[in-house]
Amino acid sequence: MVQIPKTPAAASRAPRSAPTSTDVARLAGVSRATVSYVLNDTGAVRISEPTRRRVHEAARELGYVPHAAARSLRAGHSRMVLMPAPAIPAGPLYSRFLSELQKALGHLDYTVVQYGSVGLRGDEAARAWAELRPVAVLVPGADLGPQGVAVLKRSGARAVVTLGPEPVEGAHALLMDHRTVGRCAGRHLYERGRRRIGVVVPEEAGLEAFAGPRLDGVRRAVRGTGTTVTELPLAYDERAAAALAARWRSLRLDAVFAYNDEYAMLLMRALQDEGIGIPEETAVIGADDLMLGRLLRPRLSTVRIRLPSGPQLAELVDRAVRDPAAAPVRRRVLDATPVHREST
Amino acid sequence: MVQIPKTPAAASRAPRSAPTSTDVARLAGVSRATVSYVLNDTGAVRISEPTRRRVHEAARELGYVPHAAARSLRAGHSRMVLMPAPAIPAGPLYSRFLSELQKALGHLDYTVVQYGSVGLRGDEAARAWAELRPVAVLVPGADLGPQGVAVLKRSGARAVVTLGPEPVEGAHALLMDHRTVGRCAGRHLYERGRRRIGVVVPEEAGLEAFAGPRLDGVRRAVRGTGTTVTELPLAYDERAAAALAARWRSLRLDAVFAYNDEYAMLLMRALQDEGIGIPEETAVIGADDLMLGRLLRPRLSTVRIRLPSGPQLAELVDRAVRDPAAAPVRRRVLDATPVHREST
After folding, report:
1. Do B133 and A71 touch (CB under 8 A)?
2. What was the ipTM of the complex prediction?
3. Same domain flag for B244 and B167
4. How far apart are CA A199 and CA A205, in angstroms?
5. Which residues of chain A neighbour B90 with C-beta distances below 8 Å?
6. Is residue A297 pLDDT above 90, yes or no?
């Protein structure tokens, strides 16, 4: 089952440590400069096809791998697009978005690298990212400041793109304003005749950046209509949901925006176990339009969130890389539409 | 709101391109070698605290960021642990595992980098990873071969750890045999008196590596008992589930292992809509023990899967990095136990 690679030449000629371009040059019978030209494909010098082939064969035989670091030192930049890895486990919507984006950037010959910056925040994190000399950096969230952008650019990043609620000086901004999601949910519930709306605010760390704006959006949607908005802190576990459901009738709510579909499923189950009629007594709406909402009974109303598509975003990054001097792009990309099903 | 960093010295003295260690040396009034000693913290040379401080201040003022690439070229390796990013959107179990592992490696001062290798497979991918010169590589799945391991090691990786069904020559192996999951589900259904078992095999690309072994595990669990096992291909959408449910009675099954909890939720809903009694007519069991299974009615039986904990795995990586000559570790890490609820 296990095959040892057959490289007799490598065994006899190569040193025991990592083979270098000098070894490749010796085996191919060319200069080191030629090896460098061929393997780094600089296009600066014309090299004949047979020589090219000889170098590639020697590299393969020796198992020589060019050093991305050394290459990017010479070229001044890499094809690496760096994204910080999410600090909390990614939800299904974001996971899908990420893998779509990765594929689209891959097609444009970029490599996406997700960087786990545990414990690092803001401009400190930017400094750590800069050490990898990415050609572009894509930062979800609101944590990067103008100094961080400057650090990244000085280190050679040609494009810094933020995905967050506010633009950051010097960076392209894809503006994702989660108030839009709350506004959409609030307006839907108001239009369904509800006047006492609860809004679930997850207690899980890392969700504040979304939960706050969503709550705020509901408030804005019903401002001046006499509708009350009640904040409902909730941990993502059955006991917390049961406790909230047990005191539900004392809250005198006729509707709830449950933050997203997963919290909606949790809360709706607890309300149903408590004998509360949905939607008669309480209307429930989630967000994200996950499959699970359609599988619930009553079927869950939700807010469909459209993020920028992978190919769209990849193209924006590519354009920004090609023209690093262009004025920063500001584009609103988060789109929310209500999906009315049976639970409201 | 937007603050431009105040760096008058930088503005007047620094070049417009990325500041170099030479610029730092000039501003701090020390030699370039001193800058390198201080910023790379080699510990090879003793340097006084005031000098150290001067260098750090000059670096900060100029916005100088050391080049990880250059640093790893000098040091011969980095603190980077590379993992290929999953090709399909990660499920909740894997997302949680990943972010736990990331945190644990971060505490040991490693940086986890997830590498999106779109279109690259096997040893070709290994070559791309090697270019980043990671100190350790952690590869889920079965795609890496012994040649890929050799390439990584030659490029300076001190530890290569695979998470997959089979060990790979030269690498440490955390053995994850998904037949264990199928065996656990099959045994549970058999013990509940079921003798005609369907097994859902997702049609989604990328899941074959798990679905095949799980099916195989069910077969092994009931071998020689006269129990039949029927393969049920299923796409993750409502129409496909409804179509399968519509012909359910003609299949004459009394139980189904639905691949995981999410497919179980999808199929259970379709069976219920078809009026099929669960568990009376058909017992349903999922896998992963997600929260959603507890929220269904009847409550979903499942297979709880224990992956190695983040800190455990991080420690193994760290030990392997410290002692690259140690014999490869082989450890079975996937643990499966049935969780009996109401659906079986």
Report:
1. no
2. 0.77
3. no
4. 17
5. 90, 95
6. yes
